[in-house]
Amino acid sequence: MEDKTQGCPVTEESEVDVQIRQTKPEPQANNNRPSWSNGQCVLSVSSCSSLNPRFDLSQCRAKLENTGFQIPVADMEDPLRTALEVPSVRRYMVFNSACFHFMMAPVLYVVVWCAVFSTLHLYITVSDYWVLCLCVSLVSIFLTTAIIFILHQSNKQINMNLDVRLIQVNERMVKHKLLVAVADWVQSCNGNMQLYFVYWDMTRCLRALTEALEERSFVANNIQKKLKRKMAHLVLVTEVPAVDLEVGGSDVEQQASEEQRPLLTHDDQDAGCSTSSSQRDDTNVTVNYSLIPDPSLPAQAKANQLLMTYSAAYVKLLVSERLSGPSHHRLRSRRNHCTLAPLCLCQFIKKKILQ
What we know:
Blueprint: H1 15-23, E1 41-46, H2 57-67, H3 77-84, H4 87-95, H5 98-123, H6 129-154, H7 167-173, E2 178-187, E3 190-199, H8 203-215, H9 220-231, E4 235-241, H10 242-255, E5 273-275, E6 284-290, H11 299-309, H12 311-319, H13 345-354
Antiparallel strand pairs: 1-3, 2-3, 4-6, 5-6
Helix pairs in contact: 5-6, 8-11, 8-13
Keywords: Membrane, Transmembrane, Transmembrane helix
Region (Disordered): 1-35, 256-281
Pfam families: DUF4481 (PF14800)
Protein backbone atom coordinates (compact mmCIF):
# COMPACT_ATOMS: atom_id res chain seq x y z
CA MET A 1 0.00 0.00 0.00
CA GLU A 2 1.34 3.41 -0.88
CA ASP A 3 2.73 5.63 1.82
CA LYS A 4 0.06 8.04 2.94
CA THR A 5 2.59 10.29 4.60
CA GLN A 6 3.43 11.58 1.17
CA GLY A 7 0.05 13.34 1.31
CA CYS A 8 1.62 15.93 3.60
CA PRO A 9 2.80 18.46 1.01
CA VAL A 10 5.93 20.51 1.58
CA THR A 11 5.45 24.21 1.04
CA GLU A 12 7.65 25.59 -1.71
CA GLU A 13 8.16 29.27 -2.38
CA SER A 14 7.37 30.56 -5.82
CA GLU A 15 9.70 32.82 -7.82
CA VAL A 16 7.42 35.80 -7.18
CA ASP A 17 7.63 35.25 -3.42
CA VAL A 18 11.43 35.10 -3.63
CA GLN A 19 11.56 38.38 -5.54
CA ILE A 20 9.26 40.09 -3.05
CA ARG A 21 11.31 38.83 -0.15
CA GLN A 22 14.49 40.16 -1.73
CA THR A 23 13.02 43.65 -2.17
CA LYS A 24 11.03 43.81 1.07
CA PRO A 25 12.42 41.91 4.07
CA GLU A 26 9.95 40.42 6.52
CA PRO A 27 10.09 40.82 10.29
CA GLN A 28 12.48 38.55 12.12
CA ALA A 29 9.66 36.76 13.95
CA ASN A 30 8.21 35.34 10.73
CA ASN A 31 11.42 34.24 9.02
CA ASN A 32 11.02 30.59 10.03
CA ARG A 33 7.28 30.34 9.34
CA PRO A 34 6.32 29.49 5.76
CA SER A 35 3.13 30.58 4.08
CA TRP A 36 0.68 27.77 4.79
CA SER A 37 -2.63 27.12 3.07
CA ASN A 38 -5.69 25.30 4.37
CA GLY A 39 -5.32 21.54 4.40
CA GLN A 40 -1.52 21.38 4.46
CA CYS A 41 -0.06 18.88 6.88
CA VAL A 42 2.24 20.80 9.21
CA LEU A 43 3.33 17.80 11.27
CA SER A 44 2.58 14.07 11.52
CA VAL A 45 3.92 11.96 14.39
CA SER A 46 3.72 8.16 14.51
CA SER A 47 2.74 6.31 17.66
CA CYS A 48 5.45 4.67 19.70
CA SER A 49 3.84 1.23 19.39
CA SER A 50 0.94 -0.35 17.55
CA LEU A 51 -0.17 -2.27 20.63
CA ASN A 52 0.22 0.70 22.98
CA PRO A 53 -0.50 3.83 20.92
CA ARG A 54 1.07 6.85 22.55
CA PHE A 55 2.51 10.04 21.09
CA ASP A 56 5.46 12.11 22.28
CA LEU A 57 3.60 15.39 22.78
CA SER A 58 6.63 17.30 24.03
CA GLN A 59 8.46 16.44 20.83
CA CYS A 60 5.39 17.47 18.81
CA ARG A 61 5.32 20.89 20.45
CA ALA A 62 9.07 21.34 19.89
CA LYS A 63 8.74 20.49 16.19
CA LEU A 64 5.81 22.87 15.84
CA GLU A 65 7.89 25.63 17.44
CA ASN A 66 10.63 25.00 14.88
CA THR A 67 7.98 25.39 12.18
CA GLY A 68 6.85 28.73 13.62
CA PHE A 69 3.84 27.77 15.75
CA GLN A 70 4.26 28.95 19.34
CA ILE A 71 1.65 26.92 21.25
CA PRO A 72 1.42 26.92 25.06
CA VAL A 73 1.37 23.63 26.94
CA ALA A 74 -2.16 24.36 28.21
CA ASP A 75 -3.45 24.63 24.62
CA MET A 76 -1.85 21.47 23.25
CA GLU A 77 -0.17 18.95 25.54
CA ASP A 78 -2.64 19.04 28.43
CA PRO A 79 -5.85 18.61 26.36
CA LEU A 80 -4.22 15.98 24.13
CA ARG A 81 -3.15 13.95 27.15
CA THR A 82 -6.65 14.21 28.58
CA ALA A 83 -8.17 13.07 25.29
CA LEU A 84 -5.80 10.31 24.14
CA GLU A 85 -3.83 8.96 27.09
CA VAL A 86 -6.76 7.39 28.93
CA PRO A 87 -6.19 3.58 29.11
CA SER A 88 -9.67 2.79 27.79
CA VAL A 89 -9.13 5.11 24.81
CA ARG A 90 -5.77 3.50 24.00
CA ARG A 91 -7.39 0.06 24.08
CA TYR A 92 -10.10 1.28 21.75
CA MET A 93 -7.48 2.70 19.37
CA VAL A 94 -5.81 -0.73 19.22
CA PHE A 95 -8.97 -2.77 18.61
CA ASN A 96 -10.36 -0.24 16.12
CA SER A 97 -7.12 0.22 14.20
CA ALA A 98 -6.64 -0.80 10.60
CA CYS A 99 -3.81 -3.12 11.64
CA PHE A 100 -6.12 -5.06 13.97
CA HIS A 101 -8.76 -5.31 11.23
CA PHE A 102 -6.07 -6.52 8.82
CA MET A 103 -5.00 -9.28 11.22
CA MET A 104 -8.58 -10.27 11.99
CA ALA A 105 -9.57 -10.63 8.32
CA PRO A 106 -8.10 -14.17 7.84
CA VAL A 107 -9.40 -15.23 11.26
CA LEU A 108 -12.85 -13.97 10.33
CA TYR A 109 -12.69 -15.82 7.01
CA VAL A 110 -11.84 -19.13 8.73
CA VAL A 111 -14.63 -18.71 11.28
CA VAL A 112 -17.19 -17.85 8.59
CA TRP A 113 -16.00 -20.74 6.40
CA CYS A 114 -16.40 -23.25 9.23
CA ALA A 115 -19.81 -21.88 10.18
CA VAL A 116 -21.14 -21.97 6.61
CA PHE A 117 -19.68 -25.42 5.92
CA SER A 118 -21.12 -26.96 9.07
CA THR A 119 -24.53 -25.45 8.30
CA LEU A 120 -24.71 -26.44 4.62
CA HIS A 121 -23.31 -29.92 5.30
CA LEU A 122 -26.38 -30.74 7.40
CA TYR A 123 -28.92 -29.81 4.74
CA ILE A 124 -27.11 -30.41 1.44
CA THR A 125 -25.79 -33.80 0.40
CA VAL A 126 -23.34 -33.86 -2.49
CA SER A 127 -21.13 -36.61 -3.80
CA ASP A 128 -18.22 -34.31 -4.58
CA TYR A 129 -17.00 -32.46 -1.54
CA TRP A 130 -14.92 -30.09 -3.63
CA VAL A 131 -18.11 -28.60 -5.06
CA LEU A 132 -19.41 -27.95 -1.55
CA CYS A 133 -16.07 -26.55 -0.43
CA LEU A 134 -15.95 -24.25 -3.45
CA CYS A 135 -19.43 -22.91 -2.76
CA VAL A 136 -18.62 -22.43 0.91
CA SER A 137 -15.41 -20.60 0.03
CA LEU A 138 -17.23 -18.23 -2.31
CA VAL A 139 -19.91 -17.50 0.26
CA SER A 140 -17.27 -16.97 2.97
CA ILE A 141 -15.28 -14.58 0.77
CA PHE A 142 -18.43 -12.59 0.05
CA LEU A 143 -19.44 -12.35 3.73
CA THR A 144 -15.92 -11.46 4.87
CA THR A 145 -15.62 -8.77 2.21
CA ALA A 146 -18.99 -7.33 3.20
CA ILE A 147 -17.98 -7.14 6.88
CA ILE A 148 -14.64 -5.49 6.04
CA PHE A 149 -16.42 -3.01 3.78
CA ILE A 150 -18.85 -2.11 6.57
CA LEU A 151 -15.94 -1.55 8.97
CA HIS A 152 -14.18 0.58 6.35
CA GLN A 153 -17.28 2.71 5.81
CA SER A 154 -17.73 3.18 9.53
CA ASN A 155 -14.28 4.79 9.69
CA LYS A 156 -15.60 7.54 7.40
CA GLN A 157 -18.10 8.59 10.04
CA ILE A 158 -17.43 10.67 13.12
CA ASN A 159 -15.95 8.52 15.88
CA MET A 160 -17.38 9.07 19.34
CA ASN A 161 -14.32 7.67 21.12
CA LEU A 162 -11.69 9.65 19.19
CA ASP A 163 -13.08 12.46 17.04
CA VAL A 164 -15.47 13.73 19.71
CA ARG A 165 -12.76 13.62 22.38
CA LEU A 166 -10.63 15.86 20.16
CA ILE A 167 -13.26 18.62 20.03
CA GLN A 168 -11.85 20.37 23.09
CA VAL A 169 -8.35 20.08 21.64
CA ASN A 170 -9.36 21.68 18.34
CA GLU A 171 -11.27 24.43 20.15
CA ARG A 172 -7.91 25.54 21.55
CA MET A 173 -5.71 24.68 18.57
CA VAL A 174 -7.88 26.57 16.10
CA LYS A 175 -6.73 29.78 17.78
CA HIS A 176 -3.27 28.91 16.45
CA LYS A 177 -4.73 27.98 13.03
CA LEU A 178 -4.17 24.25 13.50
CA LEU A 179 -6.51 21.25 13.63
CA VAL A 180 -5.67 17.85 15.14
CA ALA A 181 -6.80 14.35 14.20
CA VAL A 182 -5.72 10.71 14.58
CA ALA A 183 -5.64 8.50 11.48
CA ASP A 184 -4.22 5.06 10.80
CA TRP A 185 -3.83 2.52 8.00
CA VAL A 186 -1.87 -0.61 7.15
CA GLN A 187 1.50 -0.10 5.47
CA SER A 188 3.80 -3.03 4.62
CA CYS A 189 1.69 -5.29 6.88
CA ASN A 190 2.38 -2.94 9.82
CA GLY A 191 0.02 -0.59 11.57
CA ASN A 192 0.75 3.08 11.09
CA MET A 193 -1.22 5.23 13.55
CA GLN A 194 -0.33 8.88 13.39
CA LEU A 195 -1.26 12.16 15.05
CA TYR A 196 -1.75 14.90 12.46
CA PHE A 197 -1.49 18.66 12.79
CA VAL A 198 -3.08 20.35 9.78
CA TYR A 199 -3.05 24.08 9.08
CA TRP A 200 -6.54 25.55 8.88
CA ASP A 201 -7.73 29.15 9.01
CA MET A 202 -11.33 28.88 10.18
CA THR A 203 -12.32 32.45 9.26
CA ARG A 204 -13.71 31.82 5.77
CA CYS A 205 -15.37 28.52 6.67
CA LEU A 206 -17.07 30.13 9.67
CA ARG A 207 -18.31 33.01 7.53
CA ALA A 208 -19.57 30.73 4.74
CA LEU A 209 -21.37 28.33 7.09
CA THR A 210 -22.90 31.23 9.03
CA GLU A 211 -24.23 32.72 5.80
CA ALA A 212 -25.65 29.33 4.80
CA LEU A 213 -27.50 29.02 8.11
CA GLU A 214 -28.78 32.59 7.88
CA GLU A 215 -30.05 31.99 4.35
CA ARG A 216 -32.00 29.00 5.68
CA SER A 217 -33.31 30.88 8.71
CA PHE A 218 -36.83 30.93 7.25
CA VAL A 219 -36.82 27.11 7.37
CA ALA A 220 -35.14 26.90 10.78
CA ASN A 221 -37.47 24.13 11.88
CA ASN A 222 -36.45 21.96 8.94
CA ILE A 223 -32.77 22.62 9.63
CA GLN A 224 -33.21 21.65 13.28
CA LYS A 225 -34.99 18.45 12.26
CA LYS A 226 -32.07 17.55 9.97
CA LEU A 227 -29.60 18.21 12.77
CA LYS A 228 -31.56 16.02 15.18
CA ARG A 229 -31.90 13.24 12.61
CA LYS A 230 -28.23 13.20 11.57
CA MET A 231 -26.63 14.07 14.91
CA ALA A 232 -28.91 12.27 17.34
CA HIS A 233 -26.26 9.60 17.96
CA LEU A 234 -23.68 12.19 19.04
CA VAL A 235 -24.26 11.97 22.79
CA LEU A 236 -21.39 12.11 25.25
CA VAL A 237 -21.96 10.25 28.52
CA THR A 238 -19.83 11.44 31.45
CA GLU A 239 -19.84 11.30 35.23
CA VAL A 240 -19.46 14.58 37.09
CA PRO A 241 -19.70 15.52 40.77
CA ALA A 242 -23.25 16.31 41.84
CA VAL A 243 -22.02 19.39 43.71
CA ASP A 244 -20.76 20.92 40.45
CA LEU A 245 -24.16 20.47 38.86
CA GLU A 246 -26.05 22.01 41.77
CA VAL A 247 -23.73 24.89 42.63
CA GLY A 248 -21.48 25.61 39.67
CA GLY A 249 -24.14 25.99 36.99
CA SER A 250 -25.29 29.50 37.86
CA ASP A 251 -21.71 30.77 38.26
CA VAL A 252 -20.78 29.62 34.78
CA GLU A 253 -23.78 31.32 33.29
CA GLN A 254 -22.81 34.59 34.90
CA GLN A 255 -19.25 34.44 33.57
CA ALA A 256 -19.73 33.31 29.96
CA SER A 257 -22.43 33.61 27.35
CA GLU A 258 -23.98 30.59 25.67
CA GLU A 259 -22.10 30.92 22.39
CA GLN A 260 -18.67 31.37 24.04
CA ARG A 261 -18.62 28.18 26.11
CA PRO A 262 -16.70 25.05 25.07
CA LEU A 263 -18.80 22.31 23.49
CA LEU A 264 -17.97 19.69 26.09
CA THR A 265 -18.48 21.33 29.48
CA HIS A 266 -19.71 19.97 32.77
CA ASP A 267 -22.70 22.26 33.17
CA ASP A 268 -26.26 20.99 33.21
CA GLN A 269 -27.50 24.31 31.84
CA ASP A 270 -25.85 23.68 28.46
CA ALA A 271 -27.97 22.86 25.45
CA GLY A 272 -28.86 19.24 25.11
CA CYS A 273 -27.80 18.27 28.62
CA SER A 274 -29.93 15.84 30.60
CA THR A 275 -29.37 14.09 33.91
CA SER A 276 -30.33 10.50 34.68
CA SER A 277 -31.73 10.37 38.21
CA SER A 278 -31.72 6.58 38.27
CA GLN A 279 -27.89 6.54 38.05
CA ARG A 280 -27.22 9.04 40.88
CA ASP A 281 -24.96 8.06 43.74
CA ASP A 282 -23.39 9.87 46.69
CA THR A 283 -20.77 11.85 44.76
CA ASN A 284 -21.24 11.45 41.01
CA VAL A 285 -24.08 11.77 38.57
CA THR A 286 -24.25 10.54 34.98
CA VAL A 287 -24.83 13.34 32.49
CA ASN A 288 -25.61 13.08 28.78
CA TYR A 289 -24.31 15.90 26.58
CA SER A 290 -25.85 16.21 23.15
CA LEU A 291 -23.74 17.85 20.44
CA ILE A 292 -26.77 19.13 18.52
CA PRO A 293 -26.64 22.97 18.43
CA ASP A 294 -29.36 24.60 20.48
CA PRO A 295 -32.02 26.28 18.27
CA SER A 296 -31.88 29.46 20.37
CA LEU A 297 -28.23 30.09 19.49
CA PRO A 298 -27.36 32.65 16.79
CA ALA A 299 -26.25 31.41 13.38
CA GLN A 300 -22.56 32.10 14.01
CA ALA A 301 -22.55 30.15 17.26
CA LYS A 302 -24.26 27.20 15.56
CA ALA A 303 -21.76 27.32 12.71
CA ASN A 304 -18.82 27.38 15.11
CA GLN A 305 -20.19 24.42 17.05
CA LEU A 306 -20.70 22.38 13.88
CA LEU A 307 -17.20 23.21 12.63
CA MET A 308 -15.62 22.13 15.91
CA THR A 309 -17.73 18.98 16.13
CA TYR A 310 -16.68 17.67 12.71
CA SER A 311 -13.14 19.12 12.61
CA ALA A 312 -11.30 15.96 13.70
CA ALA A 313 -13.41 13.69 11.50
CA TYR A 314 -12.79 15.95 8.49
CA VAL A 315 -9.02 16.09 9.06
CA LYS A 316 -8.94 12.30 9.42
CA LEU A 317 -10.58 11.89 6.01
CA LEU A 318 -8.43 14.64 4.53
CA VAL A 319 -5.05 13.16 5.43
CA SER A 320 -6.14 9.63 4.45
CA GLU A 321 -7.50 10.91 1.09
CA ARG A 322 -11.00 9.57 1.67
CA LEU A 323 -12.99 12.74 1.02
CA SER A 324 -15.51 12.22 -1.77
CA GLY A 325 -16.05 15.03 -4.24
CA PRO A 326 -14.98 16.37 -7.65
CA SER A 327 -11.31 15.53 -8.02
CA HIS A 328 -10.66 17.73 -11.06
CA HIS A 329 -9.66 21.29 -10.20
CA ARG A 330 -12.07 22.85 -12.70
CA LEU A 331 -15.00 20.95 -11.25
CA ARG A 332 -14.39 22.15 -7.71
CA SER A 333 -16.55 24.85 -6.26
CA ARG A 334 -15.19 28.36 -6.06
CA ARG A 335 -16.25 28.42 -2.41
CA ASN A 336 -13.84 25.62 -1.59
CA HIS A 337 -11.43 27.05 0.98
CA CYS A 338 -9.00 24.13 0.65
CA THR A 339 -6.98 23.70 -2.55
CA LEU A 340 -5.73 20.23 -1.54
CA ALA A 341 -9.10 18.50 -1.18
CA PRO A 342 -12.35 18.26 -3.16
CA LEU A 343 -14.31 19.66 -0.21
CA CYS A 344 -13.40 22.11 2.53
CA LEU A 345 -14.68 21.79 6.09
CA CYS A 346 -17.78 23.96 5.69
CA GLN A 347 -18.73 22.20 2.43
CA PHE A 348 -18.27 18.84 4.14
CA ILE A 349 -20.73 19.88 6.86
CA LYS A 350 -23.21 21.25 4.32
CA LYS A 351 -23.09 18.00 2.36
CA LYS A 352 -23.25 15.73 5.41
CA ILE A 353 -25.67 17.60 7.67
CA LEU A 354 -27.58 20.38 5.91
CA GLN A 355 -28.50 18.62 2.68
